[in-house]
Description:
Number of strands: 0
Helix content: 55-70%
Strand content: under 5%
Largest sheet: none
Radius of gyration: 32 Å
Number of helices: 34
Distance between the termini: 52 Å
Amino acid sequence: xxxxxxxxxxxxxxxxxxxxxxxxxxxxxxxxxxxxxxxxxxxxxxxxxxxxxxxxxxxxxxxxxxxxxxxxxxxxxxxxxxxxxxxxxxxxxxxxxxxxxxxxxxxxxxxxxxxxxxxxxxxxxxxxxxxxxxxxxxxxxxxxxxxxxxxxxxxxxxxxxxxxxxxxxxxxxxxxxxxxxxxxxxxxxxxxxxxxxxxxxxxxxxxxxxxxxxxxxxxxxxxxxxxxxxxxxxxxxxxxxxxxxxxxxxxxxxxxxxxxxxxxxxxxxxxxxxxxxxxxxxxxxxxxxxxxxxxxxxxxxxxxxxxxxxxxxxxxxxxxxxxxxxxxxxxxxxxxxxxxxxxxxxxxxxxxxxxxxxxxxxxxxxxxxxxxxxxxxxxxxxxxxxxxxxxxxxxxxxxxxxxxxxxxxxxxxxxxxxxxxxxxxxxxxxxxxxxxxxxxxxxxxxxxxxxxxxxxxxxxxxxxxxxxxxxxxxxxxxxxxxxxxxxxxxxxxxxxxxxxxxxxxxxxxxxxxxxxxxxxxxxxxxxxxxxxxxxxxxxxxxxxxxxxxxxxxxxxxxxxxxxxxxxxxxxxxxxxxxxxxxxxxxxxxxxxxxxxxxxxxxxxxxxxxxxxxxxxxxxx
Length: 620
C-alpha cells in the first residue's frame, strides 16, 4: 500500500462493519474488526451522533423486531433450530439472514454431532444436508435479491460442496457489496491458487484489499511480498493492530527465521497475555528449537485460560510430543479435532506422531485429511511422500513429493526428497538436477552436495564426485550427519592415495580416525600410504644413484625443478592448499554437463493422480 490512509475513514468503516456483523451474529468477524479498531485507538472519532452507532435498527422491520430479538438470543446460546423457527417468516434483511444462518449452523452442528469419530472431514451427506438451503439461496441469487451477507453464506455452502469456481465468484460479489466483511475475504483466500489468479480477481479498491493481499501472499508462501505489505501497513497507522504482527511472525516462520518469529510471538504474549489465536504456530516453533521449558510454561498457561479450546489441545499435544510421549500427544490432537474437525494443525501434527509411532496407515489417513482441509499444506503432502516411501511405494511417494515441491519450490528438503526418489527409480540424470537445485536454493539440511557426490561416485565419475565431496567437507561443524562426513573423508583419502598425493590422503585418513566405524579402514589406508611413500622414496633414491638419464630428457628436467613445486602441492594439517573458487568452478562444470536431465525433470513435473486406499484403520 503506497498511498497514505485516512485513518478516520478506516475507523468509521470498522465501526459500521462491527455493528452490521454483530446484528447478524457473525461473532468471529465482529471480534476481528474490534481488535483492528482497538489497534487504532489513538485515532480520535466522534461517537455522539455517529451514524455508525445509530444503525442498530437498520434492516429490521418494526413488526419483526421482537421476533428478531428472540431469535438472536437463542442463537447466542446455540439453540439454532429455535432461532431459525422464530424468523421463518421474516423478510427484512437482518432477520432473513439470521434465519438462513441459523439453519446452516443447525445442519452443521448436527452433522458434526452425528460423526462417530473425527477420522473424516468431508461427508457425502453434505449435498443432502444443505440441499434445501442451497436451493433457496440459488433461486434468490438468480433474482439478484441477496445482500452481501447472504452472498457470503451462499459462498460458504458452495465451498463446502467443492463448487470452487462458483464459490470464488460469489465471494467476490459479497466482498464488493460489503468490503468490511472479513469472513468473506478469509473464505476466499484458500481458493486463490496463485498470484496470477490473485491479481485477476475483481476486488474493490478498498483498504481491506491490502490486508487480504498480504494474508494471501503468505498463504501462497510468497512471504517477502506479504511482509512488505504488512510493514507498509504498520507505517500507515496499523502498528498496534495485533493481527498484523501475528501474520509477520508466521511469514518469518515460513522463511525459517525461527528466532525472529519467536520474538514476535513473545511480544504478542506480553501485549495480550490471554490470547489463544495462533498459539499452535508458536508452540510449533518452540518444538523446532527444542525449548522444553518455554513449551511447558505455555502449555500450563493455555490450560488455565481455556482447557477446552482446539488451540489449547494442540499446544498440550506439542508439549507431550517434545517429551516423546507420542500416545498422549495423539490423544490431545484428537481432542482438538473433536472440538474442530477442520483444525488443520491438529491433522498434520497427528500424522507426525503416528509416523513416530510407526503407524504408517494412520499417518497417511491423518495427512490426507489435512490435505482435505487445506490443499496448500505442504507439510501434509511431504508427510504422505515419506509415509509411502516407508511402504516402498515409490511412484506414490514421487507424486506427493512433487506436490510438496510445487508448493515450496525453493525448499531444498523437497528437492532432496525428489532427488532420492528419482534415484530409486533409476532416473539418475533427473536426480542430479534435483540435488543441484537443492544446493543452489540453499541446502537447509546440508545433504544435497553429499547426495550428488555419492551419485557421481556410483556412476563411476570420480572427477565430478571429488569437488562435490571437498565442498561438502569445507565446513564440517555445520554437518549434522557425521557418518556422511566420515564417508566423504574416506573417499577423499582413497582418491588422493590413488593419485599419490600422500599429504592430502594422510590428512583425510587422520580425520577418519576420530570415527569408530571407520577407524580400522583409516588405519589400513595410513599403512598403505606409508608403504607407498617409503617405496617411492627408495625408488627415487635408487634412480638418482644410477645417473644414467641423459641430461636433456624430460624426466631429468623434472628432477632439476626446485622443491617449491612440491611444497606448493603438499597438504599441511588443516590448511588445504586448494582454491575454493576452483572447486566451485569444477562443481558448476560437472553440473553443466548434467543439464540434459532438465527435460526429464520437466516431463515428470506434472502431478498425476494415483488410486489410493479409501480407508485405513486409525488404531492399527
